[in-house]
Every structure is written in C-alpha cells, then in structure tokens.
C-alpha cells in the first residue's frame, strides 16, 4: 500500500510542478492514452472471444453482432444524444462539421493518391489503397474515445455529462455525411476490376455473369422489365415507376441506413421546439422512449469493440497486398493525413468558421482527421469482394493507431488548452 502512496505522491509532485502551464505533460499523456487503452482492452477481449481457443464469437456470431450494432444500437445512441443536443440555432452554428468530413475525405484521398502513385500497389488494389488512406473512421472510434475520455472526472473539457453529450452530438452530426461518402464514393472506388474479381492469380480469371456482378454504373439503365411498358399507363404510375428507378440508381437504399435515418430524425425532431419538448427533455411525456434509446445506445460501444476485435482474428495473414503497400497505407493514414487535417481546422478557426471558445468542437474536428481507416469501409469492401484484404489492413491500422492517436491527442490537448 505504501508503495502505491509513494507513486501517488510522486505523480502529484509532477503535476504540481507542471500545473503552472495549465495541463501538465503527464496529465495530457494520461488523458490521451487511457481512453485508447480502454478501447484496446475491449477489442482484445473480442479478439479472445473469437479466437479458436474460446470460439464464442465465430464469424456468424460477429455478423449478427455487427448487424445488431448497426441496425439498433448505433441508431439509438445517435437518436438520443443528437436529439437532446441539437436545436435549429446549433445546426446553423455547426455547419462546419459536415464540411470538415468532406474536406477530410478529399485531402485524405489526395494524399492516398500521391502515396499510391509512389508505392505502386499490386494490380487491382490502386483505388483500394487510395480509399483506405482517404476515409477515416468518423463514427464509432471517435464516439468510443469521447465516451472514455469524458468518463474520467479529471477530463479537461469539464463536466462529464456535458462533455459526453456535446462530443457525441458533434460526432453524430458529421456521421450522415460520412455514410453518404461511404456508399457513393467508396462503393464506386472499390468496384471490382474488369475481370470481375479481386482474386487475380496467374491468368485464371473466373468468368463472371454479366448482370449479377457488374458494378451498378454498368447495369442497363432499365433492368426493370416492365418499366414504361404501356404508354397508356396513368401519369401517376409513370411517376411512381420513375421514382422507384431513381431510388434504385441513386443507391438510396444504401445511403438510408439506420444510423442515417436516426440522424435525420433526431435533427428534424430536435430542431422543432414543440417536438423537442415532447420527446427529448427529461420531463417530457415521451421521454421514456428517448431513455430506452439511451440505455440501448450505451451497449453500442462494448458491442462494436467486441465485434471489431473479433473481426481482427482473420486479420494479418490473409492479404494479397504485400508488406510494402500495407505499410504505406498505415503511414499515409496515421502520419500524413492528421497534419493536413490540423491545417484545415486551424485555417477554419482563423477564418472564424468555428463557434468561439468551444474546445470540444475543435477537438472533435481534429479527431475526425486522426482516426484509423473506417471500419465501415471494411463492410463495403466485403460487399465488393475484397473483404479479406480490407480486414488485414484494418487490423494493422488499428494496432498502430493506438500509438499514433495517443501522440496526436497529446498534441491537440496541448494546442487547445
């Protein structure tokens, strides 16, 4: 016990010496490393559960868990937190968050293109490399980090409750843009090469059925048989059929995922004062619904981390990318992208685009540029047939992100406080 007290005393000496400059180095390292350590621990437990020794989370179980997180828990978290925090006034103040996500994807993709041009990844993986450097995880990892950071009473952002609600709201407010980027830009970029598959060994190219595997831009525009068949069809029916076709072509089904629907709902209900008082205030008649969502939303973080850890079981050994390309993706994503992001956010701050004095706002903007590769891009990759390679990249990027994120967060806290 006395040993413990000695350590405590030593720490307090360190802190009191440094407390002249606001945050001590030791404090900011602690604040940066602890949330990531928590994330890593939960991922490791998922990895353990999925390993062949325990095998409680086999591939089928992880698929169910991923589905549950994506269709129920994440929408609940977004709906409850964003709905409580958002007002019309705030939405107008927060306009830079979605813009930041788009700018981050553009600058990341440019860096990805430069890196890919230098490294020359193996044949069908050029666009794959660009996407995996360009698209960061703006959803679940920042949510987990903010939750772990705010849980600590000594966090620099003040009150735990407010810290958590604000942080989650800012991140959720950027997520709908992220999903649109994923299911349009990423979906297109990860289209299989002309051979129809990413599994290209020496010349044994499988023959593909033209309609089933073709990316959606190559499908005949009217693959609906009876579209516009009878010219005598009423105008209303024609309009309906046109809308169905539009819905199909624009991939709305993929954009309108449950988390996005939850974001739109929360923004709509939160922006109308009457509805907000009806649903989101703690004495509202319908608050029981919001409260149920809060309870379910709290389960999102452990579930997503267990599933992510489990997905890493197949990870490192099964990729055709080669060491050089994998290393380039890690370096590009974790070392080259964050300084570009820091530049974007600093410039926006100088131009007066950000709400004055809101540290959490700036912190979330910076975090959006610092994250490892998006886990959802792994989901899109497995839709497109390069899931194994994506899993391997995600594995290594997340392992190294533990160290890089800690370093960047120390820097950000130093710049902010």
Automatic annotation (TrEMBL):
<feature type="transmembrane region" description="Helical">
    <location>
        <begin position="255"/>
        <end position="275"/>
    </location>
</feature>
<protein>
    <recommendedName>
        <fullName>Auxin efflux carrier family protein</fullName>
    </recommendedName>
</protein>
<dbReference type="InterPro" id="IPR004776">
    <property type="entry name" value="Mem_transp_PIN-like"/>
</dbReference>
<dbReference type="GO" id="GO:0009734">
    <property type="term" value="P:auxin-activated signaling pathway"/>
</dbReference>
<keyword id="KW-0812">Transmembrane</keyword>
<feature type="transmembrane region" description="Helical">
    <location>
        <begin position="31"/>
        <end position="51"/>
    </location>
</feature>
<feature type="transmembrane region" description="Helical">
    <location>
        <begin position="94"/>
        <end position="116"/>
    </location>
</feature>
<dbReference type="InterPro" id="IPR039305">
    <property type="entry name" value="PILS2/6"/>
</dbReference>
<dbReference type="GO" id="GO:0016020">
    <property type="term" value="C:membrane"/>
</dbReference>
<keyword id="KW-0472">Membrane</keyword>
<feature type="transmembrane region" description="Helical">
    <location>
        <begin position="325"/>
        <end position="348"/>
    </location>
</feature>
<keyword id="KW-1133">Transmembrane helix</keyword>
<dbReference type="GO" id="GO:0080162">
    <property type="term" value="P:endoplasmic reticulum to cytosol auxin transport"/>
</dbReference>
<feature type="transmembrane region" description="Helical">
    <location>
        <begin position="63"/>
        <end position="82"/>
    </location>
</feature>
<feature type="transmembrane region" description="Helical">
    <location>
        <begin position="287"/>
        <end position="313"/>
    </location>
</feature>
<feature type="transmembrane region" description="Helical">
    <location>
        <begin position="393"/>
        <end position="415"/>
    </location>
</feature>
<feature type="transmembrane region" description="Helical">
    <location>
        <begin position="128"/>
        <end position="149"/>
    </location>
</feature>
<dbReference type="Pfam" id="PF03547">
    <property type="entry name" value="Mem_trans"/>
</dbReference>
<keyword id="KW-0927">Auxin signaling pathway</keyword>
<feature type="transmembrane region" description="Helical">
    <location>
        <begin position="169"/>
        <end position="187"/>
    </location>
</feature>
<feature type="transmembrane region" description="Helical">
    <location>
        <begin position="360"/>
        <end position="381"/>
    </location>
</feature>
């Amino acid at each position: 016990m006395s040993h413990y007290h000695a350590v405590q005393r030593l720490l307090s000496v360190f802190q009191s010496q440094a407390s002249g400059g606001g945050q001590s180095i030791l404090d900011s390292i602690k604040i940066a490393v602890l949330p990531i350590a928590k994330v890593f621990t939960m991922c490791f437990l998922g990895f353990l559960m999925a390993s062949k020794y325990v095998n409680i989370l086999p591939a089928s179980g992880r698929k169910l868990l991923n589905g549950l997180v994506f269709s129920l828990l994440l929408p609940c978290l977004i709906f409850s937190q964003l709905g409580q925090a958002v007002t019309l006034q705030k939405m107008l103040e927060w306009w830079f968050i979605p813009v930041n996500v788009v700018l981050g994807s553009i600058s990341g993709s440019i860096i990805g293109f430069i890196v890919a041009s230098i490294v020359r990844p193996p044949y069908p993986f050029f666009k794959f490399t660009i996407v995996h450097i360009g698209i960061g995880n703006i959803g679940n990892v920042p949510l987990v980090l903010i939750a772990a950071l705010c849980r600590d009473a000594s966090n620099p952002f003040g009150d735990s409750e407010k810290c958590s609600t604000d942080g989650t709201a800012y991140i959720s407010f950027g997520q709908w843009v992220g999903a649109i980027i994923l299911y349009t830009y990423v979906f297109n970029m990860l289209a299989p090469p002309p051979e129809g598959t990413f599994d290209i060994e020496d010349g044994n190219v499988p023959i593909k059925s033209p309609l089933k595997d073709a990316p959606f831009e190559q499908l005949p525009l009217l693959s609906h048989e009876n579209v516009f068949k009878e010219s005598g069809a009423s105008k209303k029916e024609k309009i309906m059929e046109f809308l169905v076709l539009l819905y199909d072509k624009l991939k709305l089904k993929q954009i309108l995922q449950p988390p996005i629907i939850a974001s739109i709902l929360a923004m709509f209900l939160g922006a109308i004062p009457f509805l907000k008082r009806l649903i989101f205030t703690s004495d509202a008649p319908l608050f029981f619904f919001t409260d149920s969502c809060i309870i379910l939303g709290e389960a999102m973080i452990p579930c997503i981390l267990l599933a992510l850890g489990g997905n890493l079981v197949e990870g490192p050994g099964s990729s055709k990318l080669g060491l050089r390309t994998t290393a380039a993706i890690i370096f590009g994503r974790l070392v080259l992208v964050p300084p570009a992001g820091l530049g974007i956010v600093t410039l926006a701050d100088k131009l007066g685009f950000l709400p004055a004095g809101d540290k959490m706002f700036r912190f979330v903007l910076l975090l959006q540029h610092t994250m490892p590769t998006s886990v959802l891009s792994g989901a899109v990759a497995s839709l497109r047939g390069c899931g194994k390679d994506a899993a391997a990249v995600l594995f290594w990027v997340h392992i190294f992100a533990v160290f890089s994120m800690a370093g960047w967060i120390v820097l950000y806290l130093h710049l902010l406080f």
